[in-house]
Amino acid sequence: MARAEVVSRKIISYFDIKGSTADELDASLNERGPLAMGSSSHHPGATKIRFGGNATYSESGGRCYISGVKVTVTTEIILPRWRDRRNASKQISMIWDTLAADIRRHENRHVEIARQHAEQMERQILALRPAANCDTLQERANAVTAQETERHDADQARFDRIEAINFQSRMQRLLYYRTRQNRPQ
Length: 185
Fold this sequence. Notes:
Layout: E1 3-17, H1 22-32, E2 46-60, E3 63-82, H2 90-126, H3 134-182
Helix pairs in contact: 2-3
Protein name: DUF922 domain-containing protein
Pfam families: DUF922
């Protein structure tokens, strides 16, 4: 029986922003936010993802088979931390809290997508049929890794496109609900 393991590691780091108005917060996010890969613009949050791991091979009866798989996924979520809250209005604080929660939810979903693909990669490598030699089996495992990494990247990009399209309506809905929750009864 082959051994299999997916190891997921999540790190959270922060960058500071300042301001007491919506315009100042927006400018600070645009100036200080992380750069996403392949982009020259700053973002309000980001998730760095790195896959790794290894497969072990064994030979028996003139065939090579997978005897173990370990896939690792290391993620770093980079989130904003607001430093000037005490100088802002309650309304700006509520807007910030809503936006910050949405940024965190968005970045955590990127982590979940990566973890799902790491698990899929592990299952696919583990399911590889024995080969005549270990070099051939390793080439198959590398092909699975490359293919699943491409699927992962496409799913992450798709998620970002959908989130961007729905951002305005999502924020309006979240602010509406938060406003209703904070009303005196």
